[in-house]
Amino acid sequence: MKTEFNSVDEYIVSQSASVRTALKRVRNAARNALPDAEETISYKIPLYKLRGLRVIYFAGWKQRYSLYPATVGVLEAFKGEPAPYELSKGTIRFPPSEPVPVRLTQRIAKFRAKEEAERSKRKPAALKRSPSPGRRTA
What is the pLDDT of residues 79-126, one digit of tens each? Predict the structure, then answer.
């Protein structure tokens, strides 16, 4: 199987028929949830970036498709959802035999966009450190 892709279309076409159908729906859900996002390939899988921030990845496998990253915030916010998925560290796995939970996928994408935006706002403040003890300042 090909492992280097130039586009999300190329990635999706490379998948098995059952997973391909699910990935097309996941892709549409992500596009609808994040209409201003850039669609690209990163780490050999599809990625949606918003204002340079990595928001959500998806990938197809033989027996499932997955969304990444399943951060602590995502796991807490969506753990009670009534959908046929499996949560693990960093990953939400879905069986392609079940209907794609489009609304849930959109909500996760929007949540991740907000989570990354908040994280990027906090990041610069963490870089502004006071001098270490014993260090002279001019």
Answer: 777 666 887 778 999 998 888 999 999 999 999 999 999 988 886 654
Q: Which of 51, 49, 48, 50 is nearest to 59 (CA)?
A: 48
| Tokens matching residue 76 | 């807490």
How far is it, in rounded angstroms, from Cα 50 to Cα 69?
A: 15
Mark residue 51 as left, alpha or beta (left: phi above 0; alpha: psi -120 to 50; beta: remaining).
left
CATH assignment of 8-114, given 3.90.1150.200, 3.30.930.10, 3.90.580.10, 3.40.50.720?
3.90.1150.200
pLDDT at 128: 45
Provide CB contacts within 8 A for 73, sequence distance 6+.
111, 115
Residue 33 CB contacts under 8 Å (≥ 6 apart), including other chains: 105, 106, 107, 109, 110, 113
The share of the chain scoring above pLDDT 90, in percent, equals 62
This prediction's pTM: 0.82
